[in-house]
Amino acid sequence: MVMRPNLAVNIGGLVLPNPVLVASGTFGFATEYASFLDIDRLGGVVLKGTTLQPREGNPPPRLVETPAGLLNAIGLANPGVEVLIREKLPLLASLACPVVVNIAGETPAEFGRLAQRLSGVPGVAALEVNVSCPNVARGGMQFGTDPESTADVVRAVRASTALPVIVKLSPNVTSIVAVAQAAQAAGADALSLINTLWGMAIDIERQKPVLGNVTGGLSGPAVKPVALRCLWQVYEAVEVPLIGMGGILTAADALEFILAGASAVALGTANFIDPGAALAVLAGIESYLLERDIEDLSELVGRAHR
Amino acid sequence: MIRITFSTASAACWAVVTISKGEPAQGAHIPAVPVQKEKLADGLYLFTLEAPRLAELARPGQFVHLRVGTTADPLLRRPFSIHRVDRARGLVFLLVRATGRGTGLLTGATRVDLLGPLGRGFAWPAQSSALAVVAGGMGAAPLVFLLQELAGHEVRVFAGARSGSLFPALHEVAGAGFPFYPATDDGSLGFAGSVTDLFRRETAGWRPDLTMACGPPAMLRSLCGVLGERGLAGQVSLESHMACGVGACQGCAVRVNGGYSLVCSDGPVFAAEEVEWS
Lengths: 306, 278
Description:
Chain A is an alpha/beta fold. Chain A is built from 9 helices and 16 strands. In chain A, helix 5 crosses helix 6 and helix 7 crosses helix 9. Chain A is globular. The mean pLDDT of chain A is 96. Chain B is α/β, with parallel strands linked by helices and 278 residues long.
């Protein structure tokens, strides 16, 4: 009998049944995808960025397709943390896979209040701290592009919760390593990277920016080499586990991130192209391990560095 | 007068007949649907999909989200409204205008990967004395399906085009067996002018219980104006670029009833009085 490899991973206290998550903002509140795939089989679901108050989001157009990529400027449209707790999380608590709530505040204190409010709520397995959204006027990437500001936010969250704290990093920085180290020193249990690359597109007929918000965040296969380089550098500089993301469409893409140092991966834009992509990636990773007689996924993590 | 309202409409509506908005879709992912293509005109194709379950589930106004290639570029799916269905033969028809690189790629495929049916379609009262259906150009495509389902109702069909050399879908709405009111910009067929002006003229002495429309944004906007002037209930089908198609990414937001709604999952059909035109 062939032994199935161990795919379970521990991400700073967050135990995942397998290493393939779906990324924040690309999977709604999961129920939207219920008729398209078996959500229970995912490694985990990271929910849309949640703020204290409801946010209606940016004016349209909010999307534009680019070569092998997608620019979005949604603007953290979400119903607010109270609606999340009252209407969304009770349904999600019954999922077999862990649910991570992505939180976004405009001040460190707001991050702290969000963390406190979500602690102990059934169905919340961990928090992902969004210091990297490029599409909001206040907060978001403002924090994540500066090591000190990142540390302020992470400390506020750390002091407010016992849940595992994952800090989502922005690639729009001179040194992602400096921000990663600041997040770790301030108490992050894990890091996820990368958020989108800050970009824009111009409509040459209207002679105006395409996006209602002027600028947006680039995702999809176009950003994968940048994401991989970020992950590689951060792996060499920190001890905490990493969740890799940025343009992953296939198991081969995911394996590149794992070999570069990711303990788990997340699919984002891929969900729009194929709702079954995350499960296909999971199956591909398992096959890769079986073919090479690798008993535990952890043996692969960071192997390209050795 | 019978006023149609939606269950989600504002309290200001005084409802004599209340109908619920079209049910949300429980779409499925069908990765390899056999498709046959017929070229109707330059850049215009009729796709015939062998998809019995989709044919059975689909409602007029709903759409399917098609993957257009197998590589990363173009990346996203493209939404297409359902043109008509043949439930007995398990067929679903789409009108595909190959305008861009994505839709151009589709015309070479023998199988398509689709999500559907998606969105909330048109919803009309089971009992009505009169219904209006208004088509503008390519917007006629999904209205052929709607007219299929409206058999037995008293319906007047209004359709606008640039010229009398009509777009194929307009031939189909014309041939649906209902009184047909064409309007052409050049006056070569029917009323000379916009379909909205024709609709305004015809509704001076005739009040449909519900008007259902699809067409370009400018046409729908002026139609919503006429419906407002006349105090008539309507439903309009909107278009948007989309990523997910299922309500997850929030990319296809439009202003409706004081906030943002999503074309893919709250629509694409919206109550005419609730749409806020920018």
